[in-house]
Amino acid sequence: MTDSLPPCPECGSVYAYAMDALLVCPECGHEWSAETASDAPVVRDSVGNVLSDGDTVTVIKDLKVKGSSSVVKVGTKVRGIRLVDGDHDIDCKVPGIGQMGLKSQFVKKAAE
Fold it and tell me: What separation in angstroms does the CA of 112 have from each of 46, 54, 58?
């Protein structure tokens, strides 16, 4: 029965079980929705918040733009992000800079 359920996204335990509409990990106590349980990687920001398409994020560090003298300043709000596979896992349009890719480790989910 445990073969058909995904491992816990928090601790990786294979002993997850279904309880009503949720999946539960007996080792760490984490609960998550069965609909969101998939093989797709979860993208988290610098403080551990889960990011999703359309979120607004804030840059937490000055970032040099490769091939340019421009800098994305700390505190820059980026709206309507898109999650992609790869090293730079956020595709977005930065105000004043344009289209670019960001790493999720350099952003924080903004309160909307």
Answer: 17, 11, 11
Q: Both tokens of residue 79?
A: 């709206």
Task: Please state the three-class secondary structure of the chain as a single string.
Answer: CCCCCCCCCCCCCCCCEEECCEEECCCCCCEEECCCCCCCCCCECCCCCECCCCCCEEECCCEECCCCCCEECCCCEECCCEECCCCCCEEEEECCCEEEEECHHHEEECCC
- Spatial separation of the C-alpha atoms in residues 98 and 72, rounded to whole Å: 10
Task: State if pTM tops 0.70.
Answer: no
> What span, in angstroms and rounded, lies between the C-alpha atoms of 70 and 81?
20
Consecutive 10-residue averages of pLDDT for the chain (112 residues): 69 84 87 65 88 93 91 94 91 93 94 74
Please say whether the beta carbons of 17 and 26 come within 8 A. yes
Q: Of 106, 111, 108, 102, nearest to 51 (Cα)?
A: 108
* Paired tokens of 94: 């930065």
